[in-house]
From TrEMBL:
Species per Swiss-Prot/TrEMBL record: Teichococcus deserti
Alphabetical keyword list: Methyltransferase, Transferase
Any one GO BP annotation for this protein: rRNA methylation
Gene3D superfamilies the record matches: Vaccinia Virus protein VP39 (3.40.50.150)
Protein name: 16S rRNA (Guanine(966)-N(2))-methyltransferase RsmD
């Protein structure tokens, strides 16, 4: 696993052993960021200078990819101890300690809001309907800014409906499905 583009292009990222953490595949991350970069509902400005939240962060690959591509800062929420250690290592490897902040916790019961984020990544365990639960909790806690893009990866068979969010795109990549929503103002 590596950073695909930007200032950290090619940087290898660590991953925890075992199957408890399922990092987003390089090809899926590349397709996602290519879509964000070129979509009429997003564009480069959706990533560049964005305040990013990577919830269910795992290795931090999505948030670190955003930082590599010009995001202003990134917040990472993760609850698994092993994944937290790997996340800290990956932030250090990318020399992003000043622009990245880790919060140990559960995205369905998020820690106190630090910043309203304009780009939110959710990559929870598949099949547990965690996207609507976490979006509701993060929104109620103020983590999701008006007009923010919310990008959620789920299993291919999962449908996601988010009241108060416009469904702007859905793409399938193997066993994964990437949902893109915009929070209504």
């Amino acid at each position: 696993m590596r950073i695909i583009a930007g200032r950290h292009r090619g940087r290898r990222l660590e991953a925890p052993p075992g199957a408890a953490t399922r990092p987003t595949a390089d090809r899926v991350r590349q397709a996602l960021f290519d879509m964000l970069w070129h979509a009429p509902w997003a564009g480069r400005e959706a990533v560049e200078e964005a305040v990013v939240l990577d919830a269910f962060a795992g290795t931090g690959a999505l948030g670190l990819e955003a930082l590599s591509r010009g995001a202003a800062s990134a917040y990472f929420i993760e609850q698994d101890r092993v994944a937290l250690g790997v996340l800290r290592t990956n932030i250090t490897l990318c020399q992003e300690s000043t622009r990245a902040r880790i919060m140990a916790g559960d995205a369905t019961r998020p820690p106190k809001m630090v910043a309203a984020c304009s780009l939110v990544f959710l990559d929870p365990p598949y099949g547990k309907e965690l996207v609507p639960k976490s979006v509701a909790a993060l929104g109620a806690a103020g983590w999701i800014a008006p007009g923010a893009l919310v990008i959620a990866e789920t299993g291919r068979e999962e449908a996601v409906v988010l009241p108060g969010y416009e469904d702007v795109a859905v793409r399938e990549h193997g066993a994964a499905k990437v949902h893109c929503f915009r929070k209504e103002a």
